[in-house]
């Protein structure tokens, strides 16, 4: 049942984003920021953890999950370091994902030799 919940929740998130892309004039970058901020907001109110327990990877893999990770890092850093944690937490929590994206993107560019469109 866990796989089924992850599949339909992740698919629903992707379908809603696709509808948002096609029916509005929002650019993809703004939609990505909207997803990250929505995930952070849901995490702030404590609603993301129950959602994640139900949907598993269907909720954790999309950009909503990245917003949740950032907010969890900020909460933890604020509890340990006070006000300065507002600025530290997101960087520490999101560093692994950003680093992995950069490294694997670079490796893919070496393997596939991308060319400029002309």
Characterise the protein shown here:
The chain is mostly helical and 118 residues long. The chain contains six helices and no strands. The mean pLDDT is 90. The chain has one domain (2-112). It has helices spanning 2-23, 28-44, 48-55, 57-60, 63-81, 85-112. It starts with a helix and ends in a 6-residue tail after the last helix. The longest helix has 28 residues, at 85-112. It is globular, with a radius of gyration of 17 Å. The chain is 83% helix and 0% strand.
Write the layout of secondary structure elements.
Elements lengths: L1 H22 L4 H17 L3 H8 L1 H4 L2 H19 L3 H28 L6
Give me a quick take on this structure.
This protein has helices at residues 2-23, 28-44, 48-55, 57-60, 63-81, 85-112. The chain is mainly α.
Essential attributes:
118 residues, mainly alpha, 6 helices
Indicate the overall shape: globular
Whole-number average pLDDT?
90
Helix content percent band = over 70%
Task: Please tell me the total number of domains.
Answer: 1
| Terminal residue distance | 48 Å
Secondary-structure-derived class: mainly alpha
Low-confidence stretches: none
The largest sheet, given as strand count, sense and whether it forms a barrel, is: none
Number of helices: 6
Amount of beta strand:
under 5%
